[in-house]
Write a structure and sequence with these properties.
Elements (H helix, E strand, L loop, with lengths): L2 H15 L4 E12 L3 E2 L2 E13 L2 E17 L6 E2 L3 E23 L5 E24 L5 E7 L7 E14 L4 E12 L17 E12 L7
Antiparallel strand pairs: 1-3, 1-11, 2-4, 3-4, 4-6, 5-6, 6-7, 7-8, 7-9, 9-10, 10-11
Amino acid sequence: MHRKTWILLALLAHALCTRAQGVVSVEAGLASISEYQNYYTPAASATYLKMVFPHLYVGGSAQLAYYSFIYRDLTGQFYNSNFGTVTEIDHHSSYLFTDAVVDVSIGEKQYFHLFADFGPGFYLGGSEGTTYQVTGGAGAHIQNVESTVANNNRIVYAYGFGVSEYIPLSSVWDIKLSQQYRILGRALNTVGTDAPYFQPNRTSFTIGVSYYYDRVFYKL
């Protein structure tokens, strides 16, 4: 293994085997992607973190991510010999990501946190309709829509980074606000030369609650 992988595993082992401050969070909100004609979609996550050293946490998260957008192409660069020229693709897919998380808190009261995560995403379902155009008699343009959902990959992976703000409610409960930017490491679909690859980045804004146990740093 690479040296960085060994260091991360050692930190995780240290965190799990020692008694230290921990935090469990659940969040929900909205997300959008950076390309194509996209929709706002739900975002939800659950995170477990444990303090390894003061201001340094490691743990894991489960994130529900949706990718919904319309791709349009008037240049005719993608052509399928069976159906014609691709003019539009309406894509919808959802994935459950399971990520390793590293979190760094800032300041004495730890109101602000910076975090990074990485992990695989498992396909939950979706749909994809591709509109093809062919030229008929007398130059007429004929369009038909075919289901291309089989192109959606069953496993992808992504990495991201973001910032969280914690607003104390009591000695053990906080309101948590998070903003995250996620980068796909593998395209959502597997295609040949007759369609584009979709690998959009994703931004999410969520709000939730956090519960601390064995708390060391109090904010009130």
